[in-house]
Amino acid sequence: MSPRILGATIVRILRQLLHDPRTIGMLVVVPALLLALLYFMYDDQPMVFDRVALVMLGVFPFVIMFLVTSIAMLRERTTGTLERLLTTPLGKLDLLFGYGIAFGLAAAVQASVAAALAYWLFGLDTAGSTWLVILIAVVNAVLGVALGLFCSAFARTEFQAVQFMPVVAVPQILLCGLFVAREQMAGWLEAISNVLPLSYAVEALQQVGANANPTATLWRDLGIVAGCVVVALILAAATLRRRTA
Amino acid sequence: MHDPAGSVTGLLGPSGSGKTTLMRAVVGVQVVKSGSISVLGEPAGSAPLRRKVGYLTQAPSVYADLTVRENARYFAALYGYDAATAERAIADVGLAKAARQLVATLSGGQRSRASLACAIMGEPELLVLDEPTVGQDPVLRDELWKQFHDLAGRGATILVSSHVMDEAGRCERLLLIREGALIADDTPAAVRERAGTDDLDEAFLRLIKAQEVAPA
Q1: Interchain proximity A87–B47, CB inside 8 Å
Q2: Which of the four pLDDT bands, split at 50, 70 and 90, describes residue B198?
Q3: pLDDT at B2 (0 to 100)
Q4: Which domain of life does the UniProt lineage start with (chain A) (predicted)?
Q5: How does strand B8-12 pair with strand B173-178?
Q6: Residue B153: domain span
Q7: Is residue A149 a part of any domain in this protein?
């Protein structure tokens, strides 16, 4: 990995994003609209809103960055830029970390706007700090990026790529403890939920919701999610073949 | 295959004969079934070599959602060159006026020149060009060929594929391949002499037919 090449790659990916104002608009506005929807849905149940909105602040960046990254990486593969890049001094990790950092920055903006609205406009109430919520949201976004980079290797078209979203994201959302507490699930469901990274991200958010100060569980959960990011990036690197048929 | 430094070698052959496959093997992105390829004394695709090799893919491989300048600066940065080098490459392919345009809004010929600018960045030691002049008008083609010879004159080794025979005549050396096999490797003059005609188009037809009759 080279800092110069990594830096240039981050700048290049962010420039591509800047040339697409509609995507930027949607990245920022869509989570805000969904939060507004939740706010009105739970108008008379502020406790439920606090619980659901807090989890959603972590889920949105994960799902959105997963989708954006898998399409972006698929484009690199299908337009020939990936092959071209692999004939230059660029290393595979420069590219993968480039995506992780560039979209992580975009997610930081997205999460900050969503969190600001959730706290100030919609009256979200958590015992712990907003900054921790944003931190967890960004780590989740990077998890989405890493899984998107990996899954894009198994899609040949954009139609296929978008269908990895329900495969990868929906089971994690269903089993993360938002709909049914994980301890109350059937044993085999809880076991599945125990190996899905989003379960730990959601538990970390719930820790922020319930405790004024960061707990040991929170740091452990965040560490697990970060570990999953590293594993997904290593798997993604393994799918990036310099030589193809 | 030995391309002397400072020369332009033309790679010719019918569609599907393996020109692109051979070029991809030289830059190290092709799975090679048998044999090994070393380029400039290093295994094809190895890290030290990737600094010295420029590659133009057949379909333009630049980012459509970036401007010409942003693309050029990115590729310049990958090779460790500054913005001035990127500007020079843009000017060399005749895109100085379109530098601020998004690649998506360029014509097909301009788009492939944008891709070419990224390939010739910083004067690589080996330049592999897969059909660099397709879709370019005669004036531009002439200018591009002059540039290839300029680059070669400064010591670069250039391997260029083409279908167009009047371009073949501008190479120092020609390789004709068919179904993955090399059927001629000579100077244009020697190819003309061997086939017994001055017309390179006709010369290649004769060589291909001769090979069909008596497979080497």
Answers
A1: no
A2: confident
A3: 62
A4: Bacteria
A5: parallel
A6: 1-52+125-215
A7: yes
